[in-house]
Amino acid sequence: MAQTSRTFAQLEVLLADNTAKGIGPTDLRDFLESAMGCYGSMYADGGSTAASIGATFALLVPPWSAAGPYRNVVVDLAGSELEINADGIYRVTFSASGIVTGATDRFAVEGRNLGVKIAGLTAEVTGTLTERIYLGFSRSVSLESGDTVAVWAKAVGGVGDLTIEHAQLSVDRVG
């Protein structure tokens, strides 16, 4: 009695009109599994020690403190990523605030899937010493089972120091 999470297109074909009376218990369980959704999140709250962010993109590892609600998504706090368990269109959202703890620095972040940049999931901001900065992005993207979502960061034009106070990364299947 395994349930399978299906895309909406697959459900439309499966449950088209039932003129052949072919919709069975497994189909209904698959529909419920799909309708219940796929979502997951993790967050960091309460500050951290200053992190030195290099001039090339590298995995951003805030002190993720907990996983938010999740279903059909694996929350990997240690690996700083969310693993997708069902194909679909997902809204990926990242937001963070932090204090610049070095000289004037420009920071950039981007969302990545299995280490590869996801188009449109980028943000960049400049901050001066002791200034609070805010970074974030949100976009709908196509993801498949086994894909991962993580945030990578770099200091544009050199090395910068940033203390991340709060951060959250989430995915929600929307189609």
Characterise the protein shown here:
- The chain is mostly beta strands and 175 residues long.
- It has two domains: 1-36, no CATH class; 38-173, Jelly Rolls (Sandwich), CATH 2.60.120.40.
- The protein is built from two helices and twelve strands.
- The longest helix is centred in the first third of the chain and has 11 residues, at 25-35.
- The radius of gyration is 19 Å and the shape is elongated.
- The model has no long low-confidence stretch (mean pLDDT 84).
Characteristics:
mainly beta; Jelly Rolls; 6-stranded antiparallel sheet; 10% helix; 52% strand; 12 strands
Structural class: mainly beta
Q: In CATH terms, what is the architecture of the largest domain?
A: Sandwich
Low-confidence parts: none
Question: What CATH first level of the largest domain would be assigned?
Answer: Mainly Beta
Shape: elongated
H-E order = HHEEEEEEEEEEEE
Proportion of residues in extended strands? over 45%
CATH topology of the largest domain: Jelly Rolls
Query: What's the overall average pLDDT, rounded?
Result: 84
What's the number of helices? 2
The total tally of domains equals 2
Percent helix range: 10-25%
Gyration radius over CA:
19 Å
* First-last Cα distance: 24 Å
Biggest sheet record: 6 strands, antiparallel
Number of strands: 12
How is the topology of this model organized?
Blueprint: H1 8-14, H2 25-35, E1 39-45, E2 51-53, E3 58-59, E4 66-67, E5 73-76, E6 81-84, E7 88-100, E8 105-113, E9 116-127, E10 132-143, E11 148-156, E12 160-173
Antiparallel strand pairs: 1-4, 1-12, 2-12, 3-11, 5-6, 6-11, 7-10, 7-12, 8-9, 8-11
